[in-house]
Amino acid sequence: MDRWIWQNKDKRAAEENRHTISNVRLYDGEDKTPFDQGSLTVSTHRLLWSDGNQSIEMPLKHIVKMESHGAKFTKSAKVILTLTKAPHSKSPGPMNESKHDYIKLSFVKGGHQETESAIKKCLNEKRWEKGVIAVQNKPSSLMGGGLVRIERQIESSRLSTDQSLSTAFKDIDNLMVKGKEMVSLAERIAQKLSDVKTDGDETVELKSHLLSIGISNPVTRETHGTGTSYHKSLGNELARMLHGPLNEAGGVLSVSEVYCRYNRARGIELVSPEDVVNACKTLTPEHHGMELKKFSSGVLVVEGDNFKSIMDNLLQTIKANDCCNAVTLSNIMSIPLLLAKERLQAAEQHGIVCRDETDDGIFFYENLFCMA
Question: Quick check: helix, strand or coil at residue 253?
């Protein structure tokens, strides 16, 4: 809230009001503020909020990222704005310093999608910069028609690009809405199939495909807080999603593959690589049946608690082929080459296999010395 200042009624140069909506509540990060049930106006330069008694504003140039969350049960729809650092010198406002780098706009009676669209359009236009450029370049018109014509062509090209971007954002918004509907439909069909209690191969395969479409109600900071609590909730959700893929992959998945699979399942509610790693750190064999491990090469993997079965499977593969190198094992077990190398090294450290270094490379055999 330290980016907000008391409202200046005077309009900026070339400023236009694009959208106004009532019953909007302001949050400083996760904290409620006294600014409740007011009217929010989106202009080409500012966000303006007023409840009749007090009026505040915030320049759009402070916004670096925007995301929205629809209404859920008793929670109202929200638009979350990530902001730049507060300027060292600014006009007086309702708060001098804030510990948060984002604010929330809560829409008690709906309308968050129209507001988000209006803010996106104004951010793409950057009308506040155009006013400055016009003032700075005004003397250039005295230097001849050539420069003025070039400036007009550049401006026309920029406006065309902005319009294309705005259209693209609208298409993405529509796709996001449809994506949620598809996940919800898939879950309803899967539930009906479960109620029928059929065990045919085609039915089982169809249920598997439907359930792999995605996570309909993913963990977010809005619903599960921030910090450790958020990462623990992510870890629980991640563990539920990974049981199937982990078994299919032979008990080990690289964190990069976990990141890709997890975000694919979450659909539009994507999480950062850092959050995925922190979520993996909360996994324990006792509670989740898997844990995060770091190989000697520095590679991070999520490994199931079935280490013995992994090693037994590896040994059987080596026996069936007399010997294996990392490339052969990677092809037979359909795992990345790096994981194949690490798995062979782990088996060697536990005395399950032994190596033979030849001119053709390193090959691993069943360790008959330990069995003797």
Answer: strand
